[in-house]
Write a structure and sequence with these properties.
The complex is a heterodimer of chains A (198) and B (551). Chain A is mainly α. Among the domains of chain A are: 65 residues, Orthogonal Bundle (3-methyladenine DNA Glycosylase II, Chain A, domain 3), CATH 1.10.15.40; 65 residues, Alpha-Beta Plaits. Chain A is built from six helices and four strands. Chain B contains 15 helices and 17 strands. In chain B, helix 5 packs across helix 6, helix 5 crosses helix 8 and helix 11 crosses helix 14. The relative contact order of chain B is 0.11. Classes of the chains: A mainly alpha (198), B alpha/beta (551). At the A-B interface, helix 6 of A face helix 14 and helix 15 of B.
Chain lengths: 198, 551
């Protein structure tokens, strides 16, 4: 009989000690904010274009974290980002949803400075402060800072903003993957590696 | 002297004797030189000449942009006829900004003055070498003045001058050591003095006995404190890390610099051109180029930077069946996409390609996991692991296998029994990872600016609301006084409420942000509409004008 009481007492004591330890750890090592949102946000391209239907990348990341939005709504991030999000969240990959737009090569906005009237509307629209100018002064876009979100185009009353595709330079150029034609395929078609290599 | 060895390496047929028989020849003047602005690791020099300017040989064309950058100079006298994109020797085959000079045939030098090194601070010397365009001429074109500034707290025990020249076909350093041994010794002493080196070692592979003899003779003539060390011929001994290993036994990991281990390495041609810059005031405007392969007369040429490669190669009389030019050697070089591409500071060799010179690479077969690549790798990596992850585009895994320690020497390609282009896979993976890092950086910067902008908008809104609340309170107070005293006028403090003065009739109505008279956009919109109309007319006007001029 005593044996059983001892056993219960030891287990209860153990539970108490471990419980106290866990309780302490949960306050001592508390993580501020939602790390998942930060992780998702770090994958998103930060164009702040709103094509996903949310006012910026962070709100979209929050919606994904709460499972209120799908992972395939970001056209600038494209296929690559969907794969990364799928891997991070343990979800199934989906192709980019057509209603949110199509993946385009990287573009930047350019102001035709002859036509610009200096109305500052594009400056107010730019989510990343990439446009320089003042009222009744000509505006210009800092090419390095422009994310290509196209939000400055609709407000322009004189239609002087156009998008140009950024050309590769020797310093941004990437080596191509060597040819994949093989005599004996190593990986069965349809597996993860096979579909990526295709 | 005790030598060390590195693991791996290969012994390809050197093929150097073809081009070492004849002395270095001076390339003749041509009528057009294309000088790329970006010929160094780091910032792209800014052009300081304009189209139409007359320039003299050795005149600066572009100023170094930042600390890691080096100036570029005119290779001959003439006129600047264009500053614009041209194709230069680069694996991408993409154009980059160049200064095009039409030679006047006089080849007239700018006034040259020796640099007074005895009365100069180390900073002055480094600035001078940067402005003379001195960069590493072994192929990496890293600005030399950056490598000459030793981080504080570090001491250079061994300064290594690299004359190994391990890559097949290339013999420009060999011929330079034979013909300009004295200048190389003096340049080595100069660099030894600049970095305050404990000892100076010149490493030369044992397949260049003439070069070793010439260096020894020059060293004895001056009794210079320089050791000429013969190293065994194994490719890639000429790699900086491999030569450090052979001469000092020190192993430099990819994440560290050789200065952390008290070693610095320069190419023989680099110290020679730096010495000429200090002694004669000559900037780096020419280099030795080996022309070999499918040609009637293989030899080395002293070539002005900017000379079109097609014209240079023609001097060697290429075989009629030649079908392209490789810049660099057969192990690390790449095909050049146009004959018009110019010779640049890193052009050490041009191999004229023809069918039969190099056997075509057989089709790629599956990896059989034999491990030969790992045995050949001088960096002690596991190329097969790198290959699997590169091929699967799993780039994060490549960090663990130290992809960026790969020096792309091509030993793994050379030994692979399945003929897998391993180095191409690694280059592909490296450039993808670098592009991803660049994208990440721009995305992070964009996020920061966006967050700052939102914060600013919130702050402005808050401040506006506070101002309005204050103004409303003042107005109500004023109304109360009015009602109480019945006095004629009581003007609110203009600093507190600058907006009310123009709308006295609204003085007692509380104003919300939404119906604020100044924020009321009607007037603004009318102005914008008018401006839009003007701009439309202007644009139509432009269109009509352009329509008239275009055919």
């Amino acid at each position: 009989m005593d044996g059983i009481l001892y056993a219960i007492a030891i287990m209860a004591l153990g539970g108490l000690v471990l419980g106290a330890l866990l309780g302490y750890a949960s306050t001592r090592f508390r993580v501020e904010g939602d790390p998942l949102v930060d992780q998702i946000d770090s994958i998103l391209p930060q164009t702040q274009c709103g094509q996903c239907g949310f006012p910026g990348c962070r709100p979209y990341a929050e919606a994904i974290a709460k499972d209120e939005a799908d992972i395939n709504q970001c056209p600038p991030g494209g296929d690559e980002n969907i794969h990364k999000l799928a891997e991070l969240l343990g979800k199934e990959y989906k192709p980019l949803s057509a209603e949110h737009g199509v993946e385009k090569p990287k573009q930047v906005a350019v102001i035709d400075e002859k036509i610009c009237i200096g109305c500052t509307l594009c400056i107010q629209a730019c989510p990343v402060d990439a446009i320089v100018g003042a009222a009744k002064q000509m505006h210009t876009i800092a090419e390095d800072l422009c994310t290509g979100c196209e939000l400055c185009i609709p407000p322009c009353p004189v239609e002087c903003i156009s998008m140009i595709t950024v050309a590769d330079t020797p310093s941004t150029w990437k080596w191509h993957k060597p040819g994949q034609q093989r005599i004996i395929p190593i990986v069965p078609v349809g597996s993860e590696m096979g579909s990526e290599a295709a | 002297m005790k030598l060390f060895t590195f693991k791996g390496g290969v012994k390809p047929d050197p093929n150097k004797t073809q081009s070492t028989q004849l002395p270095i020849a001076q390339a003749p003047l041509v009528n057009r030189y294309i000088v790329p602005l970006h010929q160094n690791i780091g910032g792209t020099p800014r052009p300081i000449v304009q189209v139409g300017d007359r320039v003299l040989k050795g005149q600066r064309l572009g100023d170094a942009d930042g600390w890691v950058s080096a100036a570029v100079h005119a290779p001959t006298s003439g006129t600047v006829v264009e500053i614009g994109p041209h194709i230069t020797p680069h694996p991408s085959g993409l154009p980059t900004d160049c200064v095009v000079i039409e030679a006047d045939g006089r080849d007239a030098w700018i006034e040259r003055q020796p640099f007074d090194i005895d009365n100069a601070t180390p900073e002055d010397v480094r600035d001078y070498l940067r402005d003379m365009g001195i960069v590493g001429m072994g192929g990496a074109v890293f600005p030399s003045h950056v490598k000459l500034s030793v981080p504080s707290g570090k001491h250079i025990e061994e300064l290594i001058i690299n004359g190994a020249e391990c890559e097949p076909f290339i013999s420009c350093d060999d011929r330079l050591m034979r013909e300009q041994a004295l200048e190389i010794i003096q340049g080595s002493l100069l660099f030894g003095r600049l970095v305050n080196a404990g000892k100076i070692l010149i490493g030369v592979e044992d397949n260049k006995p003439e070069a070793i003899a010439a260096l020894n003779a020059a060293q004895q003539q001056h009794n210079a404190p320089v050791a000429i060390v013969t190293v065994p011929t194994i490719y890639p001994t000429g790699g900086a890390k491999e030569l450090i290993r052979v001469l000092t036994g020190k192993e430099v990991p990819g994440s560290k610099r050789s200065t952390d281990f008290g070693v610095q390495v320069f190419n023989v041609a680099t110290v020679q051109s730096a010495w000429r810059a200090i002694t004669y005031g000559e900037p780096l405007i020419s280099r030795i180029v080996t022309i070999s392969g499918a040609v009637a007369e293989a030899r080395n040429w002293s070539v002005p930077i900017g000379m079109p490669i097609g014209k240079l190669v023609n001097l060697a009389q290429p075989r009629t069946d030649s079908d392209g030019v490789i810049m660099g050697g057969p192990m690390m070089g790449f095909r050049i996409s146009t004959d018009n591409a110019p010779v640049i500071k890193s052009t050490n060799s041009l191999i004229v390609h023809a069918p039969g010179l190099f056997p075509p690479k057989p089709a790629e077969l599956p990896c059989i996991r034999c491990g030969s690549c790992a045995e050949a790798c001088p960096q002690e990596l596991q190329p097969f692991e790198l290959y699997w992850w590169s091929r699967a585009s799993k780039f994060d895994k490549l960090e663990n296998y130290k992809l960026f320690d790969c020096i792309e020497c091509g030993c793994c390609d050379y030994v692979c029994p399945s003929h897998i282009p391993l180095v191409n896979y690694f280059r592909f993976a490296k450039s993808e990872i670098q592009a991803e890092q660049r994208e990440k950086q721009t995305a992070d910067a964009a996020r920061e600016r966006h967050e700052f902008r939102q914060e600013r908008a919130d702050r402005e809104k808050r401040e506006k609301a506070e101002r309005l609340a204050k103004a409303n309170a003042a107005r109500q107070a004023a109304g109360a006084t009015l009602n109480a005293s019945g006095a004629a006028t009581a003007v609110a403090n203009p600093d507190d409420a600058p907006d009310i003065s123009s709308h006295p009739d609204q003085a007692s109505t509380p104003i919300a942000v939404d119906n604020h008279p100044v924020l009321d956009a009607a007037a603004k919109q009318a102005a914008i509409a008018a401006a839009a109309e003007r701009a439309r007319l202007k644009r139509e006007h432009h269109a009509v004008k352009n329509g008239d001029t275009s055919p």
